[in-house]
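BUG: 3D viewer hangs when loading the predicted structure for this chain

Environment: internal workstation, default settings.
Expected: structure renders.
Actual: progress bar stalls at 90%.

Input used:
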Amino acid sequence: MAQKVLIAEKDSATLTLVETRLRARDYDVFLATHSDEAIRLVQKMRFDLVLIGSCMESVEGMDLAQKIKRSLTGLSIPIILLADEDELRELVLSQDRGFDDFLIKPFDAFSLQLRVTMNLARARERLQANPLTHLPGNMAIEENIQRRLDRNELFSVCYIDINHFKSFNDRYGFERGDNVLRHVAQLIAKCLDVSGAGPTSFLGHIGGDDFIAALDPDHEAQFAQQCLQEFDRIIPTYYDEGDRRQRVVTVKNRNGVPVSFPLMSLSIAAITNQYQSYRNLAEIARDAVEVKQYLKTQPGSHYLRDRRAKPVKSLEESLEVLSPTQEKRNTTKPLGQMLLEVGLITEEELSQAVRRHVETGERIGQVLIRMNVVTSADVGRFLEEKLSVGYVSLTGHILSEDLARILTEEFIRTHEVIPLSITEDTLELAMVDPVDQDTIRSVEEISGLRVIPKFVLENEFEEFLERNHLRLI
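Structure tokens produced before the viewer hung:
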């Protein structure tokens, strides 16, 4: 299978030159001239290498390379910077900005091929990623933790286990079990990002249903609670309706006797060096074992943090249990389950959509639309109820010149928003993510108007950009 290479470059001459040379050597090449296009491609497929021109615009205040590195599929992708000779001083900072290597323009075919080959070889040697989730494996995990210890950093290590995963595998088979593991990996990565853990966080896959995350202690609690909430909200949809309704699955043990098990839950055991010092990952894992053993005695999803700074009488005295109550959890049903309950889709169609979502990262609603099992209007109506935000269709919508001047093309593409109309001191804003408060505040600061968010589907947003390309320039 040909190795996939993404070229993100605004300069058309360089873009054509690199594309031609790499295709001639049988690489599968993808092109992006905008940073948001590059991000979408990275989120949808697994690349072996990325080349980024120095002129590419930043994304949410970060270099494009940093943004790619923070995504699940981009964690271990080698990135080469394509820079002009007068930017040599900037190259000193290239590693901190997310780049692994660089090429100075103009470069010849031999230099390009040498850099590409060397980076791909190094990536294969150092990655040792889990083949299922593509997350860093045990060697990379140990190296990351040891590096933090050597630098005397304060950090937390979260051991994340899926409870009763084996019973799910026995009941539904390895294929559906693998889908769960991939989805949980995406879920954890998303929660690291949303919790504000930042680019210094690290996510690894120990193996099986065990994951590990290293992050700043200040973000640990928020990250853990978001993981619990998202897991309990989404993962039950992997069960058939009968098992989901009864909250148990029944499988036969080795003796052929039927045994009932609860639905899968999540355990997060956190260890921090805030209160005591560690020399290596083995010592951290030793303390984590005790916390995990205590967690396994608790039903449901839980997060426990070890706060031991000195000997205590019992483990319970040293633990802070942060298990959100049912009232505090997000009890909104997933879109797929809502569509299933009203009979618009079948369980098989939902399972296919979930698998495609895990493989591509595309939203469930968009997958179902592309499968032609529901319409945009169906998805829009249900998401309107789910998000408590009005849905608006962009089909046939034309952006006026006055509205086009409110936001830049880069802002519109990056934040996936479209100005709809202005009424006195308010601005109706179509948003792919209408609960993104940071974007809403940014638009209010730029426009001086109070924003009223409206929900818009991602496929309609992309089609709108294609129709109105010239108006946005």
